[in-house]
Amino acid sequence: MTDPVLEIRGLRVDYGLGDAAVHAVRDVDLTLHRGEVLGLAGESGSGKSTLAYGLTRLLPPPGVVSGGQVIYHRDDGPPVDVLALSPAQLRAFRWAETSIVFQGAMNSLNPVHRISTQLLDVIKAHEPRSTAAARRQRARELLRLVGISADRLDGYPHQLSGGMRQRVMIAMALALEPQVVIMDEPTTALDVVMQRQILGQLAELRERLGFAVLFITHDLSLLVEFSDRIAIMYGGRIVEEAPAAQLYRQALHPYTDGLLHSFPALRGPRRELTGIPGSPPDLRAMPDGCAFHPRCPKAFDRCDKELPPLGPPGDGDPGRSVACWLHPAAVPLTR
């Protein structure tokens, strides 16, 4: 997991233009390595989904990418900036190189078309020279890959359970064997048992096929077990990034610590659930300095005056980064 497959550099996403623009994603830097699961967590409104739609150029109006780069490293060619691709290049890039499982994915299937039609359309659009028999065989294999019987291929979405529809969307995302799969809160509407089954299935597929995953959720407890690394987002910025086990054992940012104490531990000694007081910031009127300082129990004078840079903490592991004046960055990350 040392080679990068996707590098996000200084990404900025706004809603609206000019002085009235709302800055939803602010100078985000993230690197996804080949074969790894990178978790992205934060409260609702922190900018997670906007980041996903911005880097894939799927932002609905009035969203606009106002700056930055999204560098994709191909297996067999030079890196490309996704934000600079032409419409034709972008059409070829999506699904074949990078795919996305949308938030509320189990309701993303067209209710008036059979599962086969929706799976076959994806394959046919990118492999127009393939035969109808080959495409159908591939669709049957995809269903079996995600644990669904191939005889469900000609069924309609309403004939499948929520978990099965979710798995169909994952199968569709894997249809062209992309190197990167972006999952935007794909298990939110499912019960905990089905969440566990789908995450287990996804982990098995990742091991078998070798793709990388950017897994976006507000549920940090899911990421602690499923991810290799976790990035925490607040107010449109990344405030902490670390290996999953290290972040769980020793969170440096008070916001991360608050998230970790918002769900009960399933193993080990009991701990008090404290939660996080207050509400996420209004992106139209962000506070000065650190955006979290109005809610932070450890804030001091510097926090409401200066924005802390993201970088490896001066007194900690260089393999992690944090944006907090309690742990000033020894060398701020630069683009």
From TrEMBL:
Top-level taxonomic group: Bacteria
Alphabetic keyword roster: ATP-binding, Nucleotide-binding, Transport
Classification via Pfam families: ABC_tran (PF00005), oligo_HPY (PF08352)
Keyword rRNA processing: no
Example of a GO MF term: ATP binding
Residues annotated as domain ABC transporter: 8-260
Protein name: ABC transporter ATP-binding protein
Taxonomic lineage: Bacteria, Bacillati, Actinomycetota, Actinomycetes, Micromonosporales
